[in-house]
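Q: Hi! First time doing this. I have a protein sequence and I read that you can turn it into a structure. Is that right? Here it is:
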Amino acid sequence: MNLLEVSALRVAFRLDRHRTVEAVKGVSFSVPHNTTVALVGESGSGKSVSALAVIGLLDQASAIIDPASSIRFDGPCVRGKDIAMIFQEPMSSLNPVFTVGAQIAEVLRLHMGMGRRQARQRTLGLLEEVGIPEPASRIDAYPHQLSGGQQQRVMIAMAIACEPRLLIADEPTTALDVTVQQQIMELIASLQRRRGMSVLFISHDLALVAQIADQVVVMRHGEVREAGPASQVLIAPADEYTRSLLQCRAALATPRRKAAAGQPLLEVRGLGKTFSLRDGWLRRRAFPALNDVSFTLARGQTLGVVGESGSGKTTLGLTLLRLHQASGGSVRIDGRELLGMPGREFQAYKRRMQIIFQNPYASLNPRFTVGDILLEPMRIHRIGANESERLAMVLTLLDKVGLPATAIGRYPHEFSGGQRQRIAIARCLTLRPEILVCDESVSALDVPVQLQVLNLLRDLQDELGLSYIFISHDLAVVRYMADQVMVMRHGAVVELADAQQLYSDPQQPYTRALLAAMPRHG
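A: Yes, that's right. Below is the predicted 3D structure, encoded as structure tokens:
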């Protein structure tokens, strides 16, 4: 018998007293002993719901599991002991008021009956096993004192504490930098081999799946579209949907076609930003987030900005827009200095440079209709002679970003993630900008939706002559978009070069390390 066998799983959710929606529609798959099986598909495919049903974490008040569904585990099964789960966002799963050591020890005391001293010693061993540096000092740290990668390692330590026979990893690397992502993937694979446990790995990224999976189950709209050995499904897929997923990832490997460089539009010289951080009750210390950053952006071109978390990428974008006050340096558009410009005069330049944030749902007012969201900046900046003209411009913009005119009366929550990002792009375009700062603007999207939004941005650039500062930790996405690439680390520029040259012949060891950590399909 397999370790886990799921047969004819059906899960529906109550919308209200009279309506339900079926999220999982007769899904069947198995997880053999000492094997990694990947559940693959886009958001809404039913991957996570299937996994939560397996471990018994679905909300009983809203979820309805068909009585004919079958979930069989080989032997006794205690949640947290025999089956454990790693969630996508560790900061949401770790309790912020308890130290990481206390949270891991709690699992050992609850399921293994250990005393305080024994649990602490075992916790130190687990932290060391998952690669936490200096575990003796980190054991008493709080989650916010650790990096994203370290938080995820703590979650893994907690999950393997009781030596589970099945580990469920639900998108465990989605929010992580490429180097940290690679470390987590290698850690899960090594733990699986060392401990002989099975892994159910959930992801929308086929390049990651190719690294770790023995078998692959492809899901869409709550149904299994294809299942089989990874070598078969990922190299010679039988299903059209699987082929389309692979084609989307392959398309991202296509380098950006070289755009003709226009005149310099934005010139940044020696830009610095220092934050003042509290250090104890009375003391404060300076933290340099940007250090002597310089570059030039030409009209109609894209500068990709890459680096790990904490490298200064986002701080750079916010400082250019004066959402952070620069500590030094120069930022010029068409030769005019922006940093010391009075607020009223800067208002006109604010229109010329806009930002698209990572999470469109957080940046769009949920109480405004799409029409209100797009009309508001036009009214503030007095674009359009009257309301009728502004409304006509809104309809034109919706068409330009591939949304129907009926979207004008709907609210953000009624749209998918990709559609919400299109709304955010349309809002930026209301001000007729020349420069868009794209801050991780597709990192939260599935690969097919990523490709749609990236192609939209490229089309808009060709049509409107826009210049982009494209900030991302995904090097494949940057290669698809950028004419030039700037690599940052600890607030400083490590390397700046033509995109094709940087990807084919990186000069700096740090750049080479980033490129080596890129997941490669096949």
